[in-house]
Records
---
Amino acid sequence: MTRTFTRSIALGLLLSLAAPVSAALTPAETKMAATVDAEYERTVGLLERLVNQNSGSMNLEGVEIVGRMMRAELEPLGFKVDWVPMAAAKRAGHLIATKKGKAGTKRLLLIAHLDTVFEKDSPFQTFKRLTKAGVDEAEGPGAGDDKGGMVTIVAALRAMKAAGTLKDANIEIHMTGDEEDSGDPIAIARADLIAAGKRSDAALDFEGLVREEGRDMGSIARRSSNSWVVTATGQSGHSSGIFSASAGDGAIFELTRIISRFRTELPEQNLTFNVGIITGGQEAALDGDGVRATAKGKTNIIPGIAIARGDFRTLSQDQTSRVRAKMAAIVKDHAPLTSATIAFDEGYPPMAPTAGNKAVLDRLNKVNADLGLPDMPVLDPLKRGAGDISFVASDVDGLAGLGPHSRGDHAPGETVDLLSIKTQAKRAAILISRLAREKRRIAD
């Protein structure tokens, strides 16, 4: 055996050990992965165009323009695209794209959102690519949340089309125009999404990927987002009479009692709660949006009104109901000569960590194994905020976090890891293709 031949064998062995283990990929899946790589710059270019079009939730025209940009990407892939105006909810609207595939196979729901937290007057408006050795990132409003998620969907679908797996897939895409600041009433703003969940077999949410210590995590749960307002009232009068039988405790002490008991009596696993704004005095009020407060009073006047507004987040609907009942009971237990009420605003429901959701993650981890990627452990739901997938979570198994990884979300300097779009698009294309071949449990 020659030295050259020996070195060739050794080199081949080393290369085989270093290469990703992808022997379990089908030829079509290998084609999908190659297409994502080949179209990387095209994908980044789409992201740049989307980021440079402001689509703050209240920039209704901008949200609609981004919707048109996504229509231009999805229609050539065979989707029927509809724009659903949301004037009734005081928002721009939603983009809904559907593609019918093979009868009797699973119906998949893909979820993303067109809007960002950065409104039209934000100084943070331009895509900026940041490339250096081993790193390819981009800074811009919504670069990760969630324009990065939208381009991940497009990249995955293009790869499926190139590999021939898209034509038979039953897919419905919902890109909401108000995820960052949902329309009111929410029953109207999310009616179409909820209906889609009821007719789907699996839901995949393309908000951002979460990493812990450099490891990609799987999101099978998201907590709810609920808001509340407590209004306390009391007998107004001269402060010298405070706590007397004729004057009572006053509104601010009553509100303080309530908040203090919230702090000591509400805590339980997976629950967080917060007081975001508080006001009180002889006169007090919150503005129509509940984000600004006014008050008037004097140190020698017992306050007649006090108001607090906050939120609480839960992991299940049972927990939501239980916490609401406990809060209401605390509010009802009035101090002398005071009264108080609590009102709850309809918010985002929870996405509980079900066995069905875990099964979808298990399917994704099989994709990871076939791509030569590490397993994705289950993410602690305390580390993930509320999202649109929660509106369908009671009707369909799902998985969140299929968008790219980013940092600094919701703040100037939001930065997306562009290379993670490649990885996420490959995962999504293969997962969607595999799920789309499976038969429905309920016949069409």
---
Amino acid sequence: MSIWYAIWDALPFEMLHWDFMKNALLALLLMAPLFGILSTMIVTGRMSFFSDALGHSAFTGIAIGIICGVAAPIWAAVGFSVVFALLFSFVRSRSNQAADTLIGVFSSSAVALGIFVATVGGGSFTRYNKYLIGDILSVTPGEIGMLALVLLAVIVFWVFYTRLTLTAIHPQLASSRGIPVGLSQTLFTAAIAVVVTLSISSVGLLILNSLLVLPGASARNVARNLKQYHGFSVLFAFLAGVVGLTVSYYSGCSAGAAISLGLAAIFAVTFCLRKVRA
């Protein structure tokens, strides 16, 4: 971290002379490929609302962790979210219900349980505001290190398990070729659960889903092949992150909200380009 700080101290960028801004920028550099890669998988696999449901489960895990006196409630949230994701995969594989129906069941149940746990005994809900809104400017070096490890794991999973793309596009074809569709989907849902949970305190539950959907959705508007699809998704996540962080610093607004609006603007532009190209 000292090298990272020294690099920006030597450059004439006023906002990056503050350590908390350097931490936030480094976190964004890790989040951009992380959200970009997962976004393409989520959009392709039509799992957009599932990531939102996982955010609700992460909030429930945090509430349980705080009530139980866990020193670091985020780890209780990680555990609860992974269990939630695995339970969803289990029910989905053994049900004839549509995926969006099951997601609605799990999402509504998770958020209801979270609110119940957070307010039981007349507890105050205000202590959870930081998880709803998020604050990437308060990210710590320890959290940055954890994001780096998660990014490395996701990249390895993505590179060495390319069959996941076929599983998302055409599960029946993937199964006929001997690809373990159930295992692939389970690993994927668990990966989303970990990323969502570790990011919730930085970007906030209320807008987290936009960061997991909009990069891939925007890339899909302009990409002509799979390579461009992944590349544009990561690029859009990076651009929105840097612009959002800059806007947040000079305007005093929420960084997460600024990043999300930046992604929305990118989607609008790419949608217009798609219409022109068509």
---
Amino acid sequence: MGAHDASGFGAGGVCLPGPTAIPRGARVKSLREDSTLRRHRLNDASPVLWRTPIPTDVQQRLVTGSNRAGDVTNSDLELAGSLLQQECVAQCYDVRERTPKDATDNLATMYWSRKGSTTSTGPPARLLRMAAIHQRFHRYLNLKDYLPGKRNTMADDASRLLSLSDAELLTYFNSNYPQSKPWVLWT
């Protein structure tokens, strides 16, 4: 299970593996006891955190109150974040013949993903096609659910706390969202 989010500045999400999750050995970063980062391969069912900044040229094309001529919507970014979430799960865990479930606070992303199509021919259509190919290649079925923004705090933090270093972000997550195993950062 997991959740993802995208803002005008970044995208991010979290993966909370169940007891039957099989780690795939993706490259992750974790904190040592002395709070320095170490890079290693995921070899247990640790909770995974990921984030990425939105490129400046895409930010400048985002439709906002002050940029009504933009051609990229927040829902486009949220759908891209959904695909990144699926890639994180597929890289970190064996998803063959499994049904990963993740949540979004964007209704358009949820409905487009559930339906597998959209009425437009723009970025959502291409992203949904990529998501379908991704699911077929990795042999899984992704379920999408809605998580209201006020309850999507972990994914919100992952997508917005871009000013924190990797070590600071892991420290933040380990102290604010403690799990039975420490958080790792998928890179």
---
Amino acid sequence: MEIANRKLYKKSPFVTIYIATFLAAFHVFLMTYINSSFLSQFISEKSVGILFAIGSLASIAALIIIPIILRVLGNYLTIIGLTILEIFILLGMAFIKEATVVIPLFVAHWVVFQLMFINMDVFFESSQKEESDTGSKRGILLTIINAALIFSILLVGFILKDSEFWRVYLTSVGILIPFLLIVLIKFRKFKDPIYESPKILNTIKKVRNSKPIRNIFISQLFLKFFYSWMVVYMPIYLHNHIGFDWPQISIIFTIMLLPFVLLEVPAGHLADKLWGEKELLSAGFIITALFTMIIPFIGIASFVLWTVILFATRTGASLIEITTESYFFKHVQGDDADVISFFRMTRPLAYIAGPIAAIIALEFLPFQYIFLVLGVIMLFGLKYAFALKDTR
């Protein structure tokens, strides 16, 4: 068995990358839907969004300089250092109860885990040889990531008792241990590509002058904006305003996220071989927008109805996710660390713009109608979907 596994890893580095990515994603997603509730113990609900924005500003600065770090340390040493740092950060969040310590630790966590995924992108792109199957491989990768999200939510339902959030953060640390061991053993002979010097203005110019990358960057930004509102405000809305308890929310979210596991591999294959990215991306924006706009008009705590509506929003989001990822990575290589890191800035940019926009919307609208605003915003993504030229 050991010999067979060794041959499998040697034959396909993606097996190792998939396993490591699953563990990295699993450790992050355990905290995704409880971070806002955890932080609300130390600051007000409105301030939670501001803290996400602060963390995202710090992430942008880190993403700008990550190519320098990669040039000096290499991808292997960088991800090892980040993983060890993340372990200590989460231990602090688990056991320290002082707001003056917890808040900076959360900001540090928000930065570190995003840099870790840049490292995984470099491993992935450096192993990618053919562009013709990028959609399929990215579909598998995203399916694995989203499977981690589903399993993490189920696990949180078992381990989170009476708002004892330390259980979740400590479990996340436990998951990082095998991740670190895999990286130490399987990637020690990784040969770094040549990383370009991080000249942010040149990178912005490069993205702006490339119509395919520019359009897909903006499309991805719309998707992350959608996530920023949903991750921060949907748990609060379902619990505090609709009246679901956390076990119910856990089940709703688990079912809601199934499209990411069920649809992204076939959608990636379709984008490669049959329909192309433009059609799938456009459909994703339309589905996501329409069902998000329905949310404000559901005022009852119907488990089935909420599950169906949220499932539909993620059906659209899953199409956006796989097509933007596939299309972007068909236009970059492993040594495009500056462009890849800039692409990953869509998350922090969205988590700056999203909470700020939500806070402004809440000044004029009841809580539920911010989701109507979100649905309308998502419709504007169609402009950039229509501008794509299919790669098939």
